[in-house]
Amino acid sequence: MTIVKDVEARGLRHCETTALGVLLRHEGLDLSEPMLFGLGSGLSFVYWDSKGMPFPFLGGRVKPFDLTRNLAARLGLTLLVEETTSPRRAWENVAALIDAGRPVGLQLDCYHLEYFRSKVHFGGHVVAMYGYDEHDVHLVDTDQQGGAVRTSRASLAMARAERGPMTARNRSFTVALPERPPRWQEQIIPAVRHCADAFLAAPIANLGHRGIEKAAKLAPTWLRRAGDPRHDLPQAALLMEKAGTGGGLFRALYRDFLGECVQLIDDSGLRTGHRLYAEAAGLWTDVAALIAKAGESGDVGHLEQARVVLDELARIERDAMQVLRQL
């Protein structure tokens, strides 16, 4: 058995920030999960629907791995990424790092991981790997999935090689700190501005505050849109609230990030943004509950209520981001 020494196998709320936390703590930088999420400009919104989907997807963050790229650029980290279509090379890439005493991040499809409770394909899942033996690998996943977990090498190979939406070609990555410790406090305002600019200037109507407005407009149609409303709507609500989002479709994480920021920086704009995202986080939880009730009862009235709340959320988040981009 080969295990990397001094790895703190601590699961957090979201998969990508969990993996980044493991890698950065091993390098000597310990930041809270909300700070990792915020410095990575992780907040966003997407309304994604296509004929092949059983139900529209409401996403609350940037694309998989963009958070990692953003954070690395912001803090001056050395981010080394390997991708390959060869299963043999894919294993060699990670085993060599573990043998050298370094944990490694992996992007994969969680469907194949043996410890996962819900068998749903999601190719943007991220874990940290810190050990292996002849049969199994040692991973760190979210607290919800067990934190320090194990799965077979065969299942890991399938998860890493899966093809489909948001997948990568056996992607593995490491991060290293610059020679001088990063002055991460100085990057808070640039990270907030970047997030706000992207949210407000989304190029298509499915993204940002316009995407929330689109979701509001279409919400009353979701009972008719769903193939199996009693399953699909509660499942969508569960993904919004529990599937590694930290609650409130990632708004609780961003609220907590802004809350940490106002303790470090005395700025009225930050305080306003924090107040508005505290409100938004609670309202997104309300929306998820209404969607679940609609599926369980078949009553479109719950979706009419969700439409009203979503319209309010579009306004609140637009106002918050307009303030935050002026910092």
TrEMBL record:
- Give start and end of each Butirosin biosynthesis protein H N-terminal domain: 14-142
Q: Which residues form the signal peptide?
A: none
- An example Pfam family from this entry, by short name, is DUF4872
Looking up InterPro entries in the UniProt record yields:
BtrH_N, DUF4872
DUF4872 domain: residues covered: 155-324
Q: Which domain of life is it from?
A: Bacteria
What protein is this chain from?
A: Butirosin biosynthesis protein H, N-terminal
